[in-house]
Design goal:
It is built from 8 helices and 10 strands. It is α/β, with parallel strands linked by helices. It is elongated, with a radius of gyration of 20 Å.
Length: 234
């Protein structure tokens, strides 16, 4: 079987502070024939800040991933080196990319990764919770589905692991109140705008978090780490 020359690189990008871009990730962008990005304007802005110009940047997001597949495979068949990135953090982690990565593997193309920042691991690290065992839930569902998920957590479906999820600033208070009602007053960490200029961290009980955020306008990207189930919950 002839070895295929095309290669797909998965590249992590800063979640806020541009200084967090890795040297290796920058080199991959410099050498790539094509860069796949959720938002081409944001990617071009990042490339410009890195001093990288005249790159072919194509959008790949949750709305067009399916229709882009044939184009990407054709480019790889031609021997292209392609960099896959998301707006912030690691691709696939609550972002598109898993489908094209699997297809590349199935068709024999080399897939490699240049790891970078992640809001998930950053929040766990700064929270002070032990990070050896956690469950990441992405963005929580809305309405009844969210309450159903919280009941599963309360019943111990995820054991003693930390629960990590993203939340919209517009739904944070509603989610906190439902956590208090359904799960109880566990310890919680809330990271807002991690690594950015107006980064904010909160650590305390859920009831304290409700008091803190009840009278302030919450903005920005939010990552929540909820303490795991302990013996007193059983």
């Amino acid at each position: 079987m002839t070895e295929k020359k095309g290669k797909l690189w998965i590249v992590g990008t800063p979640i806020g502070n541009l200084d967090d871009m890795t040297i290796r990730g920058k080199r991959v962008f410099e050498e790539a024939d094509l860069i796949l990005a959720e938002d081409t304007r944001r990617m071009r802005s990042l490339l410009s800040s890195l001093g990288i110009e005249n790159k072919d940047v194509v959008s790949l997001n949750m709305h067009n991933e399916e229709e882009r597949l044939s184009f990407i495979i054709r480019k790889l068949d031609e021997g292209a080196k392609i960099a896959l990135s998301s707006d912030a953090g690691m691709p696939v982690i609550s972002d598109p990319g898993a489908k094209i990565i699997r297809i590349c593997r199935d068709r024999g193309f080399e897939v490699d990764v240049s790891p970078g920042p992640s809001a998930v691991t950053s929040a766990i690290a700064i929270s002070g919770f032990p990070g050896s065992h956690f469950t990441f839930l992405g963005f929580l569902p809305r309405g009844k589905n969210r309450r159903r998920l919280l009941r599963k957590i309360s019943r111990g479906s995820y054991g003693e692991s930390l629960i990590v999820f993203f939340e919209s600033p517009f739904r944070l208070m509603e989610t906190l109140r439902e956590i208090l009602e359904i799960i109880g007053d566990r310890e919680i960490f809330i990271g807002r705008e991690l690594t950015k200029l107006f980064q904010e961290s909160f650590f305390g009980c859920v009831s304290d978090a409700i008091q803190k955020f009840a009278f302030s306008e919450v903005k920005g990207e939010i990552t929540v780490v909820l303490s795991g189930r302990d013996e007193e919950d059983v």
